[in-house]
Amino acid sequence: MSVITYRQALNETLREELRRDDNVFLMGEEIGIFEGSYKVTAGLLQEFGAKRVVDTPIAEEGFVGLAAGAAMLGLRPVVEIMTINFILLAIDQVVNHAAKIHYMFGGQARVPMVIRTPGGGGQQLAATHSQNFEAWFAYVPGLKVLAPATPYDAKGMLRSAIRDDDPVIFLENLALYNTRGEVPDDAGDYTIPIGLADVKKEGTDLTIIAYSRMTVLALDIARRLEDEGINAEVVDVRSLRPLDKETILNSVKKTNRVVIVEEDWRSYGIGAEIAATIQEEAFDYLDAPIRRVAGIEVPLPYAKVLERAALPSAQHLLDAIHTTLEGAQVGR
Amino acid sequence: MAEVTMPRLSDTMEEGTIGRWLKQPGDQVEKGDILLEIETDKATMELESYESGTLQKIIVQEGQTVPIGEPIAMIGEGPAEEAEPPAAGPAPEAAGAAGTQQPDAPPRSGTPTEEGGSAATSRTSKPGGGLEAPSGPEVEARGYNRGAASQTVTEPHGNGRTEERIKASPVARRIAEEAGIDLRQVQGTGPGGRIIKENVEEFQQRKGPAPAPAPQAAQPAPAAKPAPAGKPAPAQASAPAQAPAPAPAQAPAPTTQPAGEVSPMSRMRRAIARKMTESKPGVPHIYVTSEIDMSEALKWRKQLNDSGVAPVKISVNDMIVKAAAKALQKFPSINSSYAVGDDGQAGFVQHAQINVSVAIAIDEGLVAPSVTDADKKSLGTIATEVRELAARAREGKIKPNELEGGTFTVSNLGMYDVVEFGMIITPPQAGAIAVGSVRQVPVVRDGEIVVGEVMHISLSVDHRVADGATAAQYLQEFKRLMQSPMSMLL
Fold it and tell me: In this structure, are residues B471 and B422 in contact, taking their beta carbons and an 8 Å threshold?
């Protein structure tokens, strides 16, 4: 095992996949010479050349559509959208084309493409550059939406995404790029199947459901709660579409109490979907209302203190957990 | 309407147990009247009412424990709300009790059109009251079912209110339904008094599962007698003495789980176990008493002690311990423990050893260290051990492990001039004998009235694992040993 950053995990995986399969190529703004705004594609232009690491114009709709067409004809494009905020310019290509082609061609064409893109706030990038749109994409049939939280998961899931024959939205988070985690040394070729959640920490008193950066927060809180004698289970959803209901429901059946934490806005969010699923399929196992911790519903402010106040915090999560455990004889 | 809450009666008090309600729903209460007795960690104290009015409702029943600040009753103007049925009462008794519980409820006036007519109309009396609504959990379930809610709302009711909705989490509700627990009897500790899972689980542990709503279990013939006349509860009425074929009886939870392999019980044995637990929560006791002619035993004891061969003086009690143990060899069902097997069904554990616990009164109360393998030990060894245990007990130096492992208890109050008394069995043991004084009384021997020396022995047996006949035969054997003490040596 060695400890690497989330950014390194992505970079290594892209390199390995470019080496493994000649049909894989990368496209995006400033990913070649500049090595990507977040340096995820560092060194790749040098190794693979401009045909396979393609710098595009600032024209998201154009190059996402181009990628969809290339994928239909058998290539495996991996598109980087600099941040998820810019994907809005390409949303017609994603939703109306990439996601539907397989259906509308009666199964005769597939679109094996990946769109990698970071989201998230906390960088003082203000309202238009700090968003989370996972709910928009997780809503669309025909897309697969992944949101790994650790370097290990990032590797295993990016591999699966590139090798999958359907369009995959691969969500990164700006605040995760420098986080570290263990990955196997002789990299091996492990993959993490799409549609599989992961119990990141086992527990008995309640289940914290999270994904992406909020998984890191949830694990941190779960460890702190142990000092209070509260044994929380952390379920990392990882795959937002398809959603691994089984892992979620099994955990709820075990702990009977749930807090869902997400960085995006609360209304109509991923948390709402998970909560609805739980109450539909595990109602008789609930011992307390399901609670959601999410971002405050405002365009994210630029001012540091306001930005911090608007994003879900450790304190928000702790409060929700304590409320959810009210009356139960655990901890304290 | 004012809430009566669990008061803080001492600095260290965190929760209190309702000892006894001195006022019943419907009773008029004046400020300063004693409402109830509350048991705390320190003492039992009376609580005066801070309000005047009618005791509307008792929220927390006798025996239940709640944290300070929790509402325990409501006082207000007007007639009482529905009474909650007494905790843990099976349906027929509950109906009877509810009917008589509130004779003092003021007659209602001005509401002649309302159904019921009496403020004391309780849920449990509804089936007899002509309403079609089912009682108990089904009504509660409907309260939650939005689809059927309109039926609930339009349902006429004694005081014009709709059925009170019990706050319980879904998982608590499910567990209660599966275990046949009436949620009205469970105290909720969740937000706003919501009943949560652990409340139901604790209740279940404390009380053992309630009788199934409609027991289809095999019933032993004598137990299948008709429900009390007049007010048959629905559950009883729907369970006539059928052919014993269907589901096995619900196993009552044992108070303590003994070690060892659990052997299955017969179907009838399980039905008896369930019935007995219904009638007396915890361990259902039976008591059988016998009179022992002690003349031989006393003579023999004197010989032994005079001879100087015994290591210490042999007491009557030592002989009783020995005889009790020896008799248990022949009646292993009394030297056993009620238990629940891996399949959740009632069973029993037969103990390989016969270890007799000897109750020793000490200043703080009582301890009962055990003499292991008492059936195999000589009288002298038993006498030595008991003497030594008693000495250490008085010094407070009994080790915890010496208090465990007993399989049967002997308690002797002979020195206090008692004729006889009944012992409460110490779970998971299944038997205990209570020893009275040896008394000089006129007895008839060979047709002559002479002065005899007799002792009364009362045997308590866990009725789940053994019956009166076995208990009586055990006492016969015990009596034989005591009346011909030489046979103890065999």
Answer: no
Q: What is the CATH number of domain A2-183?
A: 3.40.50.970
Chain A segment 260-289 residues within 8 A of B by beta carbon are 283-288
Nearest to B468 by CA among B477, B481, B459: B459
CA A160/CA A176 separation, integer angstroms: 20
Pair of tokens at residue A27: 């496209």
Of B53, B59, B228, B125, the C-alpha closest to B117 is: B125
A129 in active site: yes
Domains and CATH numbers, chain B: 2-207 (2.40.50.100), 263-489 (3.30.559.10)
SS3 of residue B293 by DSSP: strand
Q: What is the CATH number of domain A198-324?
A: 3.40.50.920
Q: Quick one: pLDDT at residue B270?
A: 72
Q: Which is more confident, B461 or B214? A: B461
Question: Are B196 and A329 within 8 A, CB to CB?
Answer: no
The count of residues in chain B is 490
State the smallest CA–CA distance between residue B286 and chain A in angstroms. 38
Percentages helix, strand, coil for chain A, rounded to the nearest 5? 40, 20, 40
Torsion of CA B54, B60, B64, B70, to 10 degrees: -110
- Residue-wise pLDDT for A267-297, tens only, equals 999 999 999 999 999 999 999 999 999 999 9
Cβ-Cβ contacts under 8 Å for B211 (sequence gap 6 or more): B90, B91, B180, B235, B250, B274, B278
Residues A97-148 have pLDDT tens digits of: 999 999 999 999 999 999 999 999 999 999 999 999 999 999 999 999 999 9
Cβ-based contacts of B174 with chain A (< 8 Å): 284-285
Measured between alpha carbons, how far is B214 from B254 in angstroms, rounded to an integer? 22
Catalytic residue among A60, A80, A262, A263: A60
Q: pTM score > 0.80 for this model?
A: no
Which among A3, A322, A13, A1 is positioned nearest to A178, based on CA atoms? A3
Q: Which of A198, A181, A313 is nearest to A246 (CA)?
A: A198
Which one-letter amino acid corresponds to residue A313?
A: S
Residues within 8 A of B (CB atoms), A 227-266 only: 256
Please report, for chain A, the start and end positions of each structural domain, with discontinuous segments joined by +. Answer: 2-183, 198-324
**Residue A129, phi then psi, degrees to nearest 5:** -125, 20
Query: Identical fold at A2-183 and A198-324?
Result: yes
Instruction: Put residue A10 in one of left, alpha, beta given phi > 0 → left and psi -120 to 50 → alpha.
Output: alpha
Cα–Cα distance, A131 to A159 (Å, whole number): 25
What is the C-alpha to C-alpha distance for residues A205 and B126, in angstroms, rounded to an integer? 40
Query: pLDDT digit string (tens) for A219-250?
Result: 999 999 999 999 999 999 999 999 999 999 99
Most confident range (mean pLDDT) of A187-191, A197-201, B57-61, B140-144 is A197-201
Give the chain A residue nearest B174 (alpha carbons): A284
Nearest-angstrom CA–CA distance, A158 and A117: 12
Rounded to the nearest angstrom, the minimum Cα separation between A285 and chain B is 4
Using a CB-CB distance cutoff of 8 angstroms, which residues of chain B are in contact with residue A324?
none
